[in-house]
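A.,

Following up on our hallway conversation. Structure tokens first:
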């Protein structure tokens, strides 16, 4: 039997892994600039956490969540997104009482049993940010600005920010009845999932991949209450101050039940029909609904896989070794290994070094040295072993090889690498 990966899951080979690592590094630098702290949440949580927070009518809960009963009889699920876990951690660990700004970020793999397609996998990495405890439109604007800054930092270009406001519970209370009447009058034309949802959550129909685009053109629009209208207007004003270009799209809903007021997406035409790079929004009621304090919040999540798709013409720096150590005789293996260790521990600055197998032929080891991407090969043979020297051979640039005392090799190589 042949062994292969599951559909929708994949290996990240070294080139992709380097690109992912460079995106993660850019994210950490950006989060530090804005005062965010890292929070590492569990991969598996109680299933109820995601049902209560995400919403039982969402695609995530109804069709996509990997849920199962564990050995203790508990209904658990591997995390499909990060926000519920962050909010649970915020409540469970009383993070609201630390006196610090409630700014948190996470980097981790998520799991959804959705149909694999370009940039969408059943296991995927997300980078997310949550600002808990701030109701001000300044938090909305800062959060969106930080996201745009991150995308620009990693090299994503040609993106646009799309905004909408879903209002508060009072706004939607009136709108729900109007929208419900509209959807009931067209129920026979809706897809089966939407027909089953409209009585429980009519707003979800506007986010349907099948019916949503057509409904958005004809459905009644939400009228914001004065407070929500002011909040949305101020958010746009502050984005202009930050230099973030954006457009308002009244049809933007987002697919999670916990959103209130501001919702947003960053889109790129380079991704085709599935053009959303990332998105997020405000969720002022979620913390309290999960048993925590009244703590308004705003956040976003970005799929690293989709970011990487936009960077296909870019490559992260290859971590090839600077030196490749070769033993040209059987007796030189131990000395070659000692030199490799000395290079890595050099007090003047570590030098990355590698080797293949000192038992292989000189020709085979030199072939490995060439393929390694190293700048120099350091060769110890019988003559060098007797004389206490090492031969340094350039691999990338033209130049003659030369011999130096073994003890001097790290400092000499360090100078060559600087030159």
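Then the amino acids I'd put at each of the 419 positions:
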């Amino acid at each position: 039997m042949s062994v292969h990966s599951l559909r929708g899951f994949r290996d990240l080979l070294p080139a992709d892994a380097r690109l992912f690592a460079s995106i993660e590094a850019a994210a950490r630098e950006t989060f530090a600039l804005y005062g965010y702290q890292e929070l590492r949440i569990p991969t598996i949580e109680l299933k109820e956490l995601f049902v209560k927070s995400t919403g039982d009518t969402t695609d995530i809960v109804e069709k996509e969540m990997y849920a199962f009963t564990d050995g203790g009889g508990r209904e658990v699920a591997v995390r499909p997104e990060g926000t519920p876990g962050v909010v649970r951690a915020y409540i469970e660990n009383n993070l609201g009482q630390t006196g610090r700004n409630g700014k948190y970020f996470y980097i981790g793999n998520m799991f959804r049993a959705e149909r694999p397609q370009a940039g969408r996998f059943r296991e995927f990495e997300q980078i997310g940010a949550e600002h808990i405890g701030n109701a001000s439109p300044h938090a909305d604007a800062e959060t969106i600005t930080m996201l745009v800054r991150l995308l620009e930092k990693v090299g994503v270009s040609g993106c646009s920010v799309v905004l909408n406001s879903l209002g508060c519970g009072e706004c939607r209370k009136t709108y729900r009845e109007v929208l419900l009447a509209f959807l009931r009058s067209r129920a026979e034309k809706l897809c089966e999932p939407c027909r089953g949802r409209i009585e429980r959550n009519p707003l979800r129909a506007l986010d349907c991949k099948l019916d949503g685009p057509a409904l958005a053109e004809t459905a009644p629009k939400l009228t914001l209450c004065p407070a929500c209208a002011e909040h949305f207007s101020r958010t746009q004003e502050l984005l202009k101050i930050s230099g973030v270009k954006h457009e308002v799209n009244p049809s933007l809903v987002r697919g999670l039940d916990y959103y209130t007021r501001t919702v947003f997406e960053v889109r790129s035409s380079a991704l085709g029909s599935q053009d959303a790079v990332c998105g997020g929004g405000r969720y002022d009621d979620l913390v309290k609904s999960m048993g925590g304090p009244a703590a308004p919040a705003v956040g976003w999540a970005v799929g690293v896989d989709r970011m990487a798709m936009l960077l296909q013409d870019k490559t992260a720096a290859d971590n090839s070794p600077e030196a490749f150590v070769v033993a040209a005789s059987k007796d030189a293996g131990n000395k070659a290994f000692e030199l490799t260790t000395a290079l890595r521990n050099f007090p003047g600055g570590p030098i990355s070094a590698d080797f293949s197998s000192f038992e292989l032929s000189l020709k085979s080891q030199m072939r490995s040295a060439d393929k390694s991407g190293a700048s120099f090969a350091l060769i110890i043979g019988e003559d060098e072993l007797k004389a206490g020297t090492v031969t340094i051979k350039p691999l990338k640039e033209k130049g003659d090889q030369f011999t130096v005392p073994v003890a001097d090799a790290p400092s000499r190589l360090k100078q060559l690498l600087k030159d």
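The chain has a mean pLDDT of 89. Curious whether your intuition agrees with the design.

B.
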